[in-house]
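Progress against Task 2.4 (sequence-to-structure conversion) is shown through the following example record, which the project officer requested during the mid-term review.
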Amino acid sequence: FVMFKATPEEMRQCAEAMNKWFVEGKLRAQIDRVLPLSEAAEAHRLQEAATVQKTASLAGKIVLHP
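Structure tokens generated for the chain above:
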């Protein structure tokens, strides 16, 4: 199953299953760090450094908090 090739119905079914697992505590988001929204540019720089340039590492998602 590749999400980018999924039909709208397959995406809906997948989203329903993932939401259910999240509510049940079976699925958790791995968060590397939480930054204030005012540091969105830094978050973007970190993401690019980790994924494109391979000069940084992230062990999860970057969350921006208002």
